[in-house]
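Dig into this one:

. . .
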Amino acid sequence: MLDLLERYGIRATFFIQGNDVAAYPTITSSIRSRGHAIGNHTYTHIDLRSLSDARVVEELRSTQDAIAAATGGFRPRCMRPPFGSFDQRVTDLASREGLTISMWTHDTQDWNPSTPVAQILGVLNSVPSGAGSTSNVLMHDFSPNMLTALQQWLPANIGRYDFRVVPAC
């Protein structure tokens, strides 16, 4: 995924789980060193609404600490709640930790291994382009079908979009 994005000069925002950072710190470091933005995606990918305040803060802080350790001190300013599940309490707790919640406008559903490439392409093709268009597409770097879809979609569409990282991150 990183090599493909680099080939097209695209910078993306990666919302990373803390347990993945701990397991693969060099990948996290590479994401950052290649100019991509990094956001917090909690440590264990649990629905934050089901946790106590203390556990929500622990999920966020432990991820911040893992990312900082892997990147030489960088601490994200944004987070994406697992499953897109959050409420005002989670928003307030994230804000107290210096994190803004960032959500998607288009879900490729590539998190499901049975989502076909054609369906992912359909979502990508539905994203508006042109002046004034702002979209945030949910993709997962662990999805082989997403990588295949991007390899097909990017050559034909790279000039139609202004790819950017999430500014709040």
Summary: The chain has two domains: 9-103, 104-164. Residues 11 and 74 are 17 Å apart (CA to CA). Residues 104-164 form one domain. The two ends are 20 Å apart (CA to CA).
